[in-house]
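Dear support,

I submitted the protein below through the web form. The confirmation email said the job was done, but the results page showed an empty box. After a refresh the structure appeared. I'm attaching both so you can tell me whether what I see now is the final result or a partial one.
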Amino acid sequence: MTVDPTLTARGAATRQRILDAATDEFARHGIAGARVERIVAAARTNKAQLYQYFGSKDGLFDAIFFGSLEHITSVVAIDADDLADWAVRLYDEYLRRPDLIRLATWARLERRPAGTLVADQDRVDAPKLAAIADAQARGLVRDGDPFDIMAMVIAMSMAWSPVSNVYAATADEPRATHDARRVLIRESVIRAVAP
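What the results page shows now:
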């Protein structure tokens, strides 16, 4: 997420407070349910500042949502040579940052109920798909559409995430519980993607 280089330190701090408050607000209430009044109150600023930085409530959501996609891609970089490890690291990040999953869920529910999660999917997925295709070419990953393989591995990593219709895990659960899930994810992904 790029920041205007002309921002003062105080302006950058205000912008960041808005992003932090809005991330929580959108994760809790969705796009339609989020209230600008709550965001600016939590950020200790005003609507004029919010609109100056982001243009609109939708512009603010876009900044947060695309920032969250960039975050997950950089913090949990794909290793197509070891998709099982990638899935486990995704599981751990979803435990640490459940707001990331909630933001994606609201985007799915309120913006793109079918098809890819974002209009410019290549922006988000092209490097991951290229890595999977390369691993396939080297005989490390089963044949098939790299997008479908990526989608399956991500879905397996999200089995206990906030979008689970069976059980949503939290970081507060016993370590042994999480360790057992990590083993299950790892073994399941290895079997699913083996050539």
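Response: this is the final, complete result; the empty box was a page-load delay. The chain has a mean pLDDT of 93.
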